[in-house]
Amino acid sequence: MKNYVNWAILAPGRIANSMATAMNGIKDGKLPGINGDKIHLYAVASRNLERAKEFADKWYFEKAYGSYEELYNDPEVDAVYIANPHAFHLDSVLGCLNGGKHVLCEKPAGCSRDQLDKMTSLAREKNLFFMEAMWTAFNPCIREIKKEIAAGTIGNIINIDSRFCNRNPYDSDDRNYDPRQAGGALLDLGIYNIYFAMMLADFSPITAESSAVRMLKGVDAWNSVNLTFENGIVTSFQDAMDVPSTTGTHDAVIYGTKGFITVENFFCTQKADVHVYKNTWGSDNEVVREIREPFAVNGYEYECAHATEFILNGRTESDVHTFKKSEDLIDMMDTLRKDWNFKYPFED
Ligand SMILES: NC(=O)c1ccc[n+]([C@@H]2O[C@H](COP(=O)([O-])OP(=O)(O)OC[C@H]3O[C@@H](n4cnc5c(N)ncnc54)[C@H](OP(=O)(O)O)[C@@H]3O)[C@@H](O)[C@H]2O)c1
After folding, report:
1. DSSP-assigned states of every residue in 321-341
2. Residue 220 and residue 64: Cα distance in Å, rounded?
3. Average pLDDT over every residue of 244-268
4. Interval 136-188: pLDDT, tens
5. Ranges of CATH 3.30.360.10 domains, the chain
6. Cα 14 to averaged position of ligand 1 atoms, centre (Å)
7. 15 Cβ partners below 8 Å, 6+ apart?
8. Class for domain 5-134+299-317, per CATH?
9. Ligand 1: which atom is nearest the Cα of residue 45?
10. Which residues of the chain does CATH 3.40.50.720 include?
11. Which has the least CB within 10 A, 92, 168, 171, 190?
12. Does residue 46 have its Cβ closer than 6 Å to ligand 1?
């Protein structure tokens, strides 16, 4: 039996460079707990052969293909990391699964529950590994934050606030401003706010109330949402493409009955402070733990190592970022879009 995975990357754009950095880091032995030899940098496929060759040379992949179909048809490819804009994930995921490849697909895997269901059904039918690449789920600092919460350091969680706001330059070709590519803040950034809230509130059923949404160039440029969980936790978040983060970071605060945790860049955090109130009333507090968990490479190595190990062990679904979690995420985004009466052109 093979003791390594021949990885391929489909669509060598911005995020693919980050994953390639992580894969090279694992190969070079920078991530403790996984033997770098388990990862083979096998192939890259782009719609443009030159782009594929350039990327393959830069990141030490053996093969370069000028079409995705060549990748689907190469029997040596074991697993594919899919990194094109969301609207094209469905075609690419189905192409890979039909070609017998395991799949790690960038978030959001599907633009709707219907799209996600087509992916998970085919993965089940073909008995192949499939996971949405929600890297936050594998973040070591988040693991430590969860430990503090489970230990009761901040008491019971009552509120979670998070913000993922950027002010991007306008570019009509950029996927973020293109409704045909399922652009907009919700699917690109809001997904992290929703994931963070659901992860801490145990993915229990919720009600969603979007206090506002601002549309720009046919996509949601800003939205503000409150979620209420069955266990009483209330969360509020904002995500934006046209509003800068005032603090320069993308912070979250988890408020409990006995204290709170401040989380820097919550979706890719390496730094969180655990505060405990000094008295029963009032906001006086002290920092009881500074959580510092620097990435072994750049943060993408954890999900890649997880997928690699699961594939090698013949597992078809992650036990961390399960199908159910992807379903809960997309259901929430579908609900919000329905409230906003917002459809992508390909949904008409
Ligand atoms: N996990 C994270 O931290 C993170 C961060 C950023 C993005 N993402 C996710 O990763 C995905 C890609 O984002 P990105 O910013 O990397 O995208 P991108 O750079 O705009 O595009 C990635 C690649 O997709 C293909 N592509 C671009 N525009 C296309 C179009 N109009 N039609 C068909 N194919 C097109 C191109 O590959 P070819 O060379 O094959 O043409 C391009 O190089 C998105 O789903 C996004 O949500 C995740």
Report:
1. S-HHHHHHHHHHHHHHHHHHT
2. 36
3. 92
4. 999 999 999 999 999 999 999 999 999 999 998 888 889 999 999 999 999 99
5. 140-292+330-347
6. 6
7. 83, 106
8. alpha beta
9. 40
10. 5-134+299-317
11. 171
12. yes
